[in-house]
Amino acid sequence: MSKENVTGFFASLTDGGEAGLSNDPTPVEVIGQAQQRGFEFSEGELLSVMKEMIWTAQSLPMGWGWKFARNHGLVRKTS
Question: What is the reported pTM?
Answer without folding.
Answer: 0.87
